[in-house]
Design a protein that fits this description.
alpha/beta; Ribosomal Protein S5, domain 2; 2 domains; two-stranded antiparallel sheet; 13 strands
């Protein structure tokens, strides 16, 4: 990888030197973290985002379906795949950034249709959502779902995975104790530090947030992120954890249709994050209406399809207090009814 230092490779079996000075190595992978640091340091990295649902649909209808109909020998039967069927295969039978498993699913369907034809059965004219289980079995994947109503102590975050974006629910609860914090859900070191920074910020702003300081001393805080079997790490859930904590301490619900991503500092600044395109696509897929992202990620919106940007209300923030104002329900003011003359007389 450094021809100015090592321009030859010697094969220990053949004992023959190979000149590698003009060789360009191109490698691919899903996760950078598993590449040894010494090797990664000598490589130029190009990050390619995963396909959106719309892009996968286009690839399937224009390329994959015609290709497999021809290869399986059923092209003349002109079997069509509905758009909804393709979307359902994408969401409930595959979990990937590319289209490899999508093509495998289409191959399976085409082969089973070919078997029906050989068995003198009438092949379907269209593959639709209703008959997917007949060919692919029960769904293998259950997409993450947002809460149906506003909840106290539950905030929706946006996450990046090697297979694309996803949503995560951060849950916080209080119970009598002595001020300890418990973190569960297989959180990595960076995520645990982010949770502690979030709590420290909220404690430092207790008076402004109208939180009684006794809550920090007389109660324990438990923060949990579901899907406990899956390891999680990274700083981008910082504002989500802070929002869940602020909600439980203030006893005010978080809006269920608001998602967010951003790193938090002890001073409450919101720092930029990576994987924005995948996260925004996940927000739209999950049915969120509003997304909160760091102001410094504004430049990354050029990678987001226009249809997705139109479907979401994207808010840019620099500070966590702005996040709280957008995501947490306002405190309801109780209107006092005017005292009537009769009531005055009775009270007297």
């Amino acid at each position: 990888f450094r021809p100015e230092q090592n321009n030859q490779f010697r094969d220990h079996y053949l004992e023959v030197p190979y000149d590698l000075s003009n060789v360009l190595f191109i490698t691919t992978g899903n996760i950078l973290d598993t590449i040894p640091p010494a090797l990664r340091d000598r490589m130029e990295t190009l990050n390619l985002p995963g396909y959106s649902r719309e892009e996968k649909l286009h690839i399937a209808q224009i390329f994959l379906v015609p290709k497999q109909l021809k290869e399986q020998g059923i092209e003349k039967y002109k079997v069509k795949f509905s758009d909804n069927a393709i979307y359902e295969i994408i969401e409930k039978y595959t979990a990937e950034a590319g289209v490899r498993n999508l093509e495998r699913s289409i191959v399976t369907i085409c082969r089973k249709i070919a078997r029906e034809i050989v068995s003198n059965e009438e092949p379907p004219k269209r593959v639709i959502s209703r008959n997917l289980e007949k060919y692919l079995g029960v769904p293998k994947i259950y997409p993450s779902e947002i809460e149906k109503k506003n909840m106290i102590g539950i905030a929706t975050g946006l996450a990046w995975t090697p297979y694309g974006g996803d949503i995560i629910l951060v849950e916080a609860t209080l119970f009598p104790g002595d001020g300890k914090i418990t973190l569960t859900g297989q959180l990595g070191d960076v995520m645990q530090e982010s949770a502690k920074a979030s709590l420290s910020y909220i404690r430092s702003r207790a008076e402004k947030l109208k939180i009684d300081n006794k809550k920090f001393k007389d109660f324990d805080l438990h923060l949990h992120i579901p899907a406990g079997a899956i390891p999680k790490d990274g700083p981008s859930a910082g504002i989500t954890m802070a929002t869940a904590m602020a909600s439980i301490f203030q006893n005010r619900p978080v809006k269920h249709d608001v998602g967010m991503t951003g790193e938090i500092t002890l001073r409450g600044r919101v720092l930029p994050i990576g994987g924005l395109k995948s996260k925004i696509l996940a927000a739209q897929r999950a049915g969120l209406k509003k997304v909160i992202i760091p102001e410094k990620n504004k430049k990354d919106l050029k990678d987001i399809p226009k249809s997705v940007k139109k479907a979401l209300d994207i808010k840019f923030v620099n500070n966590v207090d702005e996040v709280f104002d957008i995501a947490i329900e306002k405190e309801k003011k109780i209107k006092k009814k005017p005292v009537t003359e009769k009531a005055k007389y009775i009270s007297a």
